[in-house]
TrEMBL record:
Family annotation (SUPFAM superfamilies): ARM repeat
Stored Gene3D superfamilies: Leucine-rich Repeat Variant
InterPro entries: ARM-like, ARM-type_fold
Protein name: HEAT repeat domain-containing protein
Pfam families xref list: HEAT_2
Amino acid sequence: MQQAPEPAALSPEETDEALRRYATRIRESYGRLDLEVLIATEEGEHPPVGLDEVVEELCAYRSHETETWELAFDRLRNDPALPVRMEALRATRYCRDDARVWAAVRERASEDDAASIRALALARLVMGRGDDAATRQLIQDRATSDSEPRVRVNALRWWAVCETDDSAPDLLRDLAVADPDPEPRIAALQSLAFGWPAHPETLPLLRERAEADEEEDVREAFAKALAAAEALAPLADQLP
């Protein structure tokens, strides 16, 4: 599938001009907007407006305007403030340009500096493009290489949901042993216990890791997962 070309980033002057133009349209709802520092309003005025609120307002009510999305995608990629990028990512649900939306979401899932943005972008992809091969590849990439353990945990769980191939448990088994952090190891074995309890390699691995893992808390979690898998294995044919 041909990727949509990436638009050039808006210059600071273009961004400020767009914000000033739109600020007048939402002033009645939100009050005064200071584009330089987003300072608090005078006492008695409406509450101050954050740029994240501006992005949400524009995308919700001006989604038909090209300038809205030029600004929103520019802020999603380039804004230094986490709340602004987060709101711009959420606001992509209003955009009808699917190719551009999913390209931007995939980019944020792998390249954003903030783990919370990467996690949200990954969830957005799974919900909207879970059957896509590129999405599954990205899930695998995040599960194995993301720098943040909680993002790897989320990716492992999404993998267990989205990947239905017979080889799906292989990644979970590998990371149950190899991940350097305890949370992803626990998530991997829990996914095996509840998703593939009757697989011939699940119970032996759970028994091994319940004794061999270096972390006591992890060993305890594995013992609980082992008990669950042993109970579920005889019922595997009846599970969804």
